[in-house]
Structure formats: C-alpha cells, structure tokens
Amino acid sequence: MLTLRRGEQLRARLHAVCRRYLAIKAEPKAVAVADSEYSAEPEYPPIRDTSFKARKAQTAAEWHSEIREVATVEEKMIKVNMPRYYGYKVVDLTDSSVPYNALPLTQHYTRTVLEELPLLQSTTESDNKAKMDAIVKAAREDVIEALEYAHDLYKHQLTLLQTPPDAVTRERQLTQIILEQINRAALQVLSADYAHLQDIEIDYNPRHEAFWAVGGVDPPKNVVKSKKGREWQKEDANDSVDRLVQYTGEPYLALRHRHQLPTWRTNEESENLALAKQLPRYKHDARTLGYSTKHQHAINVPGYWPSANAPNFGLLSFQSRAHLQLRPKSYGERDEQEALHALAIQSSYAWLLAQANYNGFNTYNELTYPLNTQTVITNGRDWSFYEYQLNTLLIHGSNVDENRRVNFCRGTAAQPLYAEISPEGKCVDFNEATLRQLLILYSNVPSIQRTADELLPYVKGPTLRRVADYEHAEKREFLEQMFKHLASKRQRHLELPEIYMWEKLYKIDNSTRNMEARRRFFELDINPWRRTLDQHDKEYVPRAVRPGGRKDREGRFKKTYYP
C-alpha cells in the first residue's frame, strides 16, 4: 500500500511537469522590438516627492479622485462617509443662532465676497417699471388682507393655549402664518404673467443640511503636541489644518424650479485671485466665537430626496430672524446687520451646496457651472433680500490660498413691510417699496436649461445616474437604505467606546495594573475613530431562504455593496 501510494504521487508530479513543459512550448515566441519604440532622448518616469507631507497630499488627491469616479449621486455621498463609522467631528452651523462677530468666519468658511447693498432689480428683460407698478397695485390689497388675517388667526390660536410660548417661538409661529398667506397672494397675482410660477415646488419647513471642508485654520493644541512628538512631522506641527463643517437649517418656505436662475457674475469676475486674497481669514478655532462641535456623518439634504424628475434648483427661500430677539441690544445695530449677512451667506451657500451634491459635485470635486438662489430673512414685518451665486466648492487644503474662484452675495438692508397692526386689526403704514422688492424676486425667471450630461458631469452615464437606476434589486435596496440611514442621523446601536476616569488614572497615566488582562481597545492599540463604515458584522441569512439552498455556506451573510 505504501509503495503504491508513493508511485501515484510520483506519477502525479511527472504529469504536472509535462503539462508545464507543454504550456511553455505552446507560448508564442517573442517578436523583435521595432526601432520606432526607441527614442533619441531617454524618457524617465516623474520623480515623486517621498516626504510624509507629499505622500499624505497624494493619498488625499487619490481619494478625491475615487469619489469623483463613483457611479451614482447617492454612492458619492456614501463614499465621503466611508472613512468614519461613527462620523466626523464637525463645526455645528445652524440658522437658529449666529454668534457675535460671526461675519468674518462665515465669509472664510464659504469663500464669499459680500458686496454693497444695492436695490435688487428684475433680471427679466421684458419687465419694466410700469408693469411692476401695476402688479404691485394689484397685489397691495391682497397682501394687506393676508397680514391682517394672519394676525387675527394667530391671536385666536394663542387664546387656545394654556401656557403662552416664549418670544422666539411666538415670532416663528406668527411669521410662518404670514409667509404662507403672502406667498399664496403673490403667486395668485403673478402666475398669470409669469408662467414659471406655475411649475414651482413649494417646501414647507424643509430640511436644509450641507457638509463641507474648510482649510486655513490653526491646528488644535493636541494636534501640535502630537506632531512635535514625531520626528517626521515636527517641522509641520504648526501648519494649518482642515475643519469640517455641517450646516443644519429649517426655513419657513423654499421654492424650487426645474431650471436655473440666470447668473449675475461672469466667469472672469468669479476667477479673481486678488479678490480672493482680500477675503477675511478666520484662522482661530470656531469655538472661540461660541460655535459648538459635534460628531455626525456627512449629510447633504436640500429639502428633498434625489430624483430625476424633481425640480432641483432653488428659486427662493425664507429664513427666520427670530434668534435676534435673544441678542443683547448692547451689540448695536451694526452687529445685527452683520448677523443677517452671515445668516444669508451660510444658508444660501449650504442650500446650493446640497443641490450641487445631488448633481454629483461635493466639497472635494469642483463645480463645472455656477448655481444661483435668492434668500429672504424676515419676521413678517422687517424684510432683508439677498441674491447668492455659488461659483466654487473647493475651500479645503491649499485651495483656500490657490483657488482663483470666489462666491458672491449681495442684498438689501432690512426694510419694514408695515409699521404695526392696530388694536382693531388694521395694517398701519404699509410700505409698497418692500412689496416691490419681494415681487421682483418672484418674477425672476429661471431661464438656464442644461442637458443631463452638463448637469451631472461626474456620474457614470445616461442610464445610471442615481441608485434607483440600478437593475440589481438587492444592490439598489442596500444603497438606498444605507443612504437614508446616514441621512437620518440615528445613533449606532453600540455606543462609541470611551475611556473611564479610573482607567486613565490607573492604566494610562500610571501603569499600576500590569497583571490585568489587556482587553480594552486602548490596550490593544485600537482607535475606534479609525473604524470605517463597512467594518461591521454582516446580516445573517437563515438556511431556508439562502439563494443556493440550505447547504450554501457562501450565502450565510447578505452581500454588501459599499462604493
């Protein structure tokens, strides 16, 4: 038996050698290289900088390129979240509060040039003063009636409440009613002359969120200390770093259209490096002004889910200024005006950035065409009007110094629509000039139409632009569920591991428990913040429903389709 087994092994080896010899003999012979493949001058590959800083920049550039090559819109946003299972540490920007002296930081974080405050003009050539005068005259009585009705309705609602709301809540509730009534009146008057108003989509209290990266910020002390302790990073310890920003807002109303508003700045004007260098630079930590930080995933939501048929371009949004009631009067009128400017800039930038994400762009992949929107900040009586043009999204890293493009914002100072509502419920000192400015914003016609290839230059192709276009049902459902799970901002089912105080005292600062088993993550040199989005247990598939039958071991777990 032993001799027979050895003979079989020798015979198998002999067959393997013969097969390898025959395969080599069957290969085609090398063809002589033509003389044309040689060049007179030697050609060498490019010499790369192998320093740590250069390698890190190259890695980041490759990751940005990977995001750009991802097939669909939703997968691009999932790809941005891939490096962090528990989310990023972000600066929390909201529309419910603006700290003191926040305008320089807002301009730096959005790369926005704030211009003087001219009176806004209609961009439609067919408009003239006589026509607008007639429209204002026709809308005047309807708007006054809407104001009086809103105040009477809210006064009645207050009588039904046992506990009266605070001043900020009261202003937001009253302004919501006023804007809904004025919006209805404005559309009723203008729709006959402006056909684009018949095709708009109105969002009530929509969810506006945007995520982006900002460069040119001084590093935190712990980062400086960490780099100084490493020989290869010691010289770069004080270099500026990127800060991640997450904006969260909820306007009263938002109007969207399927076409874009016309631009009011040319490409030559937006690509002005000298103008970019004049922008305010806020290098300090945002917490020095009163902003807070939090951990969450990168989220971009312009008030609707990605869809090929949805109106994807913002026409007009109405923001609240109720938080100014909590602002100390000692700050002065100038600070109040700057707070309105800062709110208009960050809300307009964030809304347009979220819309750009639904067209395949993001904070790491530049726009190929500008985006425009209009913003109104009001409490029902005082109105501020703004126009915003988004030309660039690249603010991270060296782009804060080298990017030639800038964004533009212009608008008007606060104007009263009326003085007060008398005890009899009548509107006193109605201001037609403010109504004219509001109607001009409605009358601006979205006239720019682009092809699908122009709108989404970074997506895969005409048949695959969004997750809903996938024919593979399992992949489509997985990506749709993952995208909306990230956007929901739900906490992970397991909390982030933490270091308890006794562990820091007895295990980290002082090594007093050497005989204890090393099981904690910091003892095993595991950084929980480095856990990627796809590092989790897969969903188990019961035997009865496995695609390959009960004995299909490869189908024990559901497949994942991370980009």
Helix content estimate: 25-40%
| Overall spatial form | globular
| Residue-averaged pLDDT | 89
Number of helices: 15
**Beta-strand residue percentage:** 5-15%
Computed CA radius of gyration, to the nearest angstrom: 30 Å
Number of strands: 15
Low-confidence segments, given as residue ranges, are 29-33
The secondary-structure element order is HHHEHEHHEEHEEHHEEEHEEHEEEEHHHH
- Counting copies of identical and different chains, the oligomeric state is single chain
Distance between the termini: 55 Å
Largest sheet: 8 strands, mixed
Brief write-up:
This protein is of the alpha+beta class. It starts with a helix and ends in a 54-residue tail after the last helix.
Describe it.
The chain is an alpha+beta fold. It is built from 15 helices and 15 strands. Strands 2, 3, 6, 9, 10, 11, 12 and 13 form an 8-stranded mixed β-sheet that branches. A 5-stranded mixed β-sheet has the order 7-1-5-4-8. A hairpin with a 3-residue loop joins β10 and β11. About 1% of the residues have low confidence.
Layout of SSEs?
Blueprint: H1 2-26, H2 52-69, H3 73-81, E1 88-94, H4 103-110, E2 112-114, H5 129-159, H6 167-190, E3 201-204, E4 208-217, H7 221-228, E5 241-249, E6 253-257, H8 267-270, H9 273-277, E7 292-296, E8 301-302, E9 313-320, H10 332-357, E10 371-378, E11 382-390, H11 399-402, E12 407-411, E13 415-416, E14 420-421, E15 427-428, H12 432-443, H13 452-455, H14 473-488, H15 501-509
Helix pairs in contact: 3-14, 4-10, 5-6, 5-12
List keywords for this structure.
single chain; 563 residues; alpha+beta; eight-stranded mixed β-sheet; 15 helices; 15 strands; 14% strand
